[in-house]
Amino acid sequence: MLQYKRSSELFHQAQQVLPGGVNSPVRAFNAVGGNPVFVEYAKGAYLYDADGNKLIDYIASWGPLLFGHAYAPVIEAVTERAKRGTSFGMPTEVETEIAQKALSMVPHVEKIRFVNSGTEACMSAIRLARGYTQREKIIKFAGCYHGHSDSFLIAAGSGATTFGVPNSPGVTQGTAKDTLLATYNDIDSVKQLFAAHPKQIAALIIEPIAGNMGCVLPKEGFLEALRTLCDQEGTLLILDEVMTGFRLAKGGAQEALGIRADIVTFGKVIGGGLPVAAFAARNEIMDHLAPLGAVYQAGTLSGNPLAMSAGLAMLTEIEKRSDVFESLGKKTAYLHEGLDRVLTQAGIPHQINRFGSMCSVFFTEEPVTDFASAQRADHQRFKKYFHAMLSRGIYLPPSGYESYFLNDALSYADLDTTIQALADALEKREI
Ligand SMILES: *Cc1c(COP(=O)(O)O)cnc(C)c1O
User: Fold this and answer.
1) For the modification N6-(pyridoxal phosphate)lysine, which residues carry it (predicted)?
2) Which of 115, 145, 302, 358 most suits a substitution to test ligand 1, by most atoms within 8 Å of the C-beta?
């Protein structure tokens, strides 16, 4: 059983100066308890922590590291670029190069704007949609995450109202009233919102494969029905591909699922592990953006050459190694089958949702198709599962509401080690 002594000392120090000891809440392990693991370095599929433990990584920095940690082509691109200066606040050629590359890989988009985080990309995408349609309301789905900007931190209102309510202090009622909440995989919930607010809805935003309530797949025909409704209402369909873009296929979920978006947001893989995100659409929409159009959006470090070089190297490698998606899909299926087999043998109720290189284990008998069913899973058992695996050197997402992200540096031996760790923990009745 691995020990995490030095990590817990580092966490104690961090808590004196960083709120909760972290710069992003999920890292603090609140959902599973215990102390987070402090990383020293990582290579390929492995994390090496402050206690000298070696861990098999299933989060890949929450998605970006499709080929594993410290991937040579990305590291070389960044180090070479850094020698020539890291930021200018002036145009650089590499911004055009990555834009051309990204647009050639993704269907239905003609221009792209780079930003620094998925939050910024989604926030800007809805401003653009509102500017373009001259409408104010948006629809989002309970359990989908689109970053931490005010319009998205909204919970379902009372039964009497279709308006959302803030789910974080600091978000105003004024903002909340413009975000309408629908239920994932429930087309009637969307129809009701459109009927109650005819021709008032600027955009509908969705994770085409949800990853932020655990991995949840759209039912057959659901996304197509949303597309049709949006067309009827003159509402823009925003696919939030911050997680799925360049991970499920080179053209993301649009390609993998054959669905057309009006605006697409990217993050995670597009930066190869540096802070990059983007939003893209056809010209008619993107030309509303400043300085061409009136919808304002800007960023001092947007299109930063260091970050662009990392992203360009990543996208170039994806094109070169285009079998990576198939390879990852097979590995993820192998892991799924292995975990499923040992959980079934132990008689533990569970569901495993999977698409491409994303998957999640839910401890429940009931299929998980939306946020409510994800919430009904046994999250106490998830905690035990998480810690049993961590003590055996397997680093899973520290919450039952997150997806695993496989990276292609993972070997079948690593997957076997992971499945064996679960079998061992079950045998010892730790879960
Ligand atoms: C991670 C994520 C975001 C937010 O991106 P940040 O870079 O963390 O701001 C938005 N949407 C989805 C689907 C995400 O997974």
Assistant:
1) 268
2) 145
Q: What is the pLDDT of residues 9-32, one digit of tens each?
A: 999 999 999 999 999 999 999 999
**Residue 229: band (very low, low, confident or very high) from pLDDT cuts 50, 70, 90:** very high
At residue 164, the pLDDT reads: 75
145 noted as active-site residue: yes
Nearest CA to ligand 1 atom 5: 118
Ligand 1 pocket, residue 119 CB under 6 Å: yes
Whether the CB of 211 sits within 6 Å of ligand 1: yes
pTM across the whole model: 0.97
Report strand pairing: 39-43 vs 46-49. antiparallel
pLDDT in tens, 132-173: 999 999 999 999 999 999 999 998 766 555 567 898 999 999
Question: Ligand 1 in contact with 95 (CB < 6 A)?
Answer: no
Q: Which pLDDT does position 163 carry in this prediction?
A: 67
268 noted as active-site residue: yes
Annotated catalytic residue within 58, 71, 145, 401: 145
Atom of ligand 1 nearest to the CA of 147: 4
- pLDDT tens, position by position, 247-274: 999 999 999 999 999 999 999 999 999 9
Three-state secondary structure of the chain: CCCCHHHHHHHHHHHHHCHHHCCCHHHHCCCCCCCCCCEEEEEECEEEECCCCEEEECCHHHCCCCCCECCHHHHHHHHHHHCCCCCCCCCCHHHHHHHHHHHHHCCCCCEEEEECCHHHHHHHHHHHHHHHHCCCEEEEECCCCCCCCHHHCEECCCCCCCECEECCCCCCHHHHCCEEEECCCCHHHHHHHHHHCCCCEEEEEECCCECECECECCCCCHHHHHHHHHHHHCCEEEEECCCCECCCECCHHHHHHCCCCCEEEECHHHHECECCEEEEECHHHHCCECCCCCECCCCCCCCCHHHHHHHHHHHHHHHHCCCHHHHHHHHHHHHHHHHHHHHHHCCCCCEEEEECCEEEEECCCCCCCCHHHHHCCCHHHHHHHHHHHHCCCEECCCCCCCCEECCCCCCHHHHHHHHHHHHHHHHCCCC
d(CA 329, ligand 1 centre) in Å: 22
Ligand 1 centroid – CA 302 distance (Å) = 16
**Residue nearest atom 11 of ligand 1, based on CA coordinates:** 146
